């Protein structure tokens, strides 16, 4: 799903076929969010494992976690499409800015490989993972249980 006020599929757009495919849309969002949560979780495990093996050396984290991290980070481009199509209720511009800021940061690491061994890159990988695992778990919970997000600010 995407950042924003809700993860429930939108049915007020009037797009033909969207209402009839709510089951399919929900199934897709469940699969997307579960895959992203697992991908970020795997990146987190690899990053934390690297810290444990190296005695806390942040310069090694990106090298350990970059493959799943890059996959799920690129997958986040789909969140712009989710917002554009109304699959979720999130402001398109906000989602675009949030996702693209991450893509730019990822792009810097990819075009300048020495950056990947800087401690800040390791910290970035860990902080992204620590944020994204619970975020996607929150979205999954909201999709599975309509009352699953009661009492939260979002």
Task: Please give a structural write-up.
- This protein has 154 residues and is mainly α.
- It has helices at 22-54, 61-75, 77-85, 92-111, 119-144.
- Helix 3 (77-85) runs antiparallel to helix 4 (92-111).
- Residues 2-8 and 10-21 have low confidence and may be disordered.
What descriptive keywords fit this protein?
154 residues, globular, disordered N terminus
How is this structure best summarized?
With 154 residues, the chain is mainly alpha-helical.
Shape: globular
Helical content band: 55-70%
| Helix/strand order | HHHHH
**Number of DSSP E strands:** 0
Mean pLDDT: 87
| Class inferred from helices and paired strands | mainly alpha
Poorly predicted regions: 2-8, 10-21
Radius of gyration: 17 Å
Distance between termini?
A: 13 Å
Largest sheet: none
Beta content:
under 5%
| Tally of individual helices | 5
Topology:
Layout lengths: L21 H33 L6 H15 L1 H9 L6 H20 L7 H26 L10
